[in-house]
Amino acid sequence: MLLILFRPSFRLSFRTAFLYSLSVVLLLPLSAFAQQSVPPVSSSPSSATTTATDANSIPDTVEAAEASISNSDWKAAEAKLDSWLVSHPTDARALFDAGYVADAQNRLDDAAALYFRTVAANPNSFEAHLSLGLVLARQGRAAEARPELLAATTLDPGTAGPELKARAWRALARIDRDSNTSQASADLIEALKISPETPSDTLLAAQLAEQSGQLDAAEKTYRRLLASDTKLAAANAGLAHILIQRKQYPEAETLLRAALDQAPDDPTLTAQLATVLAAQDTGEALPLLQKLHAAHPADSSISHMLASVSADAGDYAGSDAIDVRLLAANPDDPDLLIAHAQNLVHEGQLALAYTVFDKATRLAPESVDAWSGLAFTASRTNRPDVTLHALTMRSEHAPEIPSTLFLWATAYDSLHQKQQAAAYYHRFLDAAADKFPNQEWQARQRLQILEKK
């Protein structure tokens, strides 16, 4: 069958890419800034938090609120501060304390608003800039967080000390890692100048080295971390990610199985093991992914991966059911359309697959997979003109392979363009090298007719 001949080039590269890229996504921390609120000064204002209130005379209400904060009695502190701020709306110390109370209760919108007011009341407050930057980062507002954190690094931390200023540099490093790894490394170095290195610093350094393509340096750093603590899931995941990139699947599998013995429910390690097992075509990948998908049904990356492995296992209907659900949320995603169309081909729904591939080529005109699929389904639904057009477009992005040469030949043959058809049948036979006996037999039979004198 032509489908079998065409399948090596027809298999979708994006499916394989998901097996690799899922681990990249899951490696990123869910919240690198969680629970990083900066405690308020509880006795007397530092130089950075001096307010309109006399620095040597803290109002009784504010002092009582800070006592409640010390006892984690948030409701009592909030009531006292709200009452005070009604008549003293620009008291920077009280505003900061109120922001801290909201921050500690994870009321991030309220905390951000109060920290903004603190900065407006006292632009030189180190703690306010730092706390505002951390809250904004936790909200995913990196562009707003960065200038606040940068401002904190320029201010005197006062009694807060260099450890808190180092926290500002570390937070900047985490923000900058997504856009400028060199700057992120510089940020981290600034933090290390004023505070001891922590395992989190070492992990971040390894991740930055990996992002910069310095895989040898990253590997050494991950291994250094694991030498001191084999249970560090993020370090195991980072090292496994490098091994997967290098296709060192057996070593990655050994590492991941040991790591999962210590953290059996870790989604990143589980996804990576599934990636490794799928790459090695073992039957374990599918049940592992099914379990992972059951635990994280809303995770689109895991759904993509399960669809891929299901298709590889021959469950095209199951794979397509997942693709269709994903398409409901993203109807113009070309990769999903291509995956859906591939499954339709395997299920024999060629006319519908043709329509889906056609849409994919319009959305992603540079996609080799989309043009390959359109050429194949056009051939099988008797559209030789479309087949030739699709093959022409595909040839702009990828070299010819035996399957495309055969499609060129049969399309020209269908259009009774004998000279072109014969030329492509010959090219196909030269490239096929006895690997596609059915199509080679067909090509030879057609050549006898086309070249008959």
**How far apart are the first and last residues' alpha carbons, in Å?**
29 Å
> Judging from the principal axes of the Cα atoms, what is the shape?
elongated
Oligomeric composition of the shown chains: single chain
Elements, N to C (H/E) = HHHHHHHHHHHHHHHHHHHHHHHHH
In DSSP terms (H or I, runs of 4 or more residues), the helix count works out at: 25
Overall average residue pLDDT? 87
CATH architecture of one domain: Alpha Horseshoe
**Secondary structure category:** mainly alpha
Largest sheet: none
Low-pLDDT ranges: 1-32, 41-55
Please describe what this structure looks like.
By secondary structure, this protein is an all-alpha fold. It has a domain of 130 residues: Serine Threonine Protein Phosphatase 5, Tetratricopeptide repeat. The chain contains 25 helices and no strands. α4 packs antiparallel against α5. The radius of gyration is 30 Å and the shape is elongated. The relative contact order is 0.08.
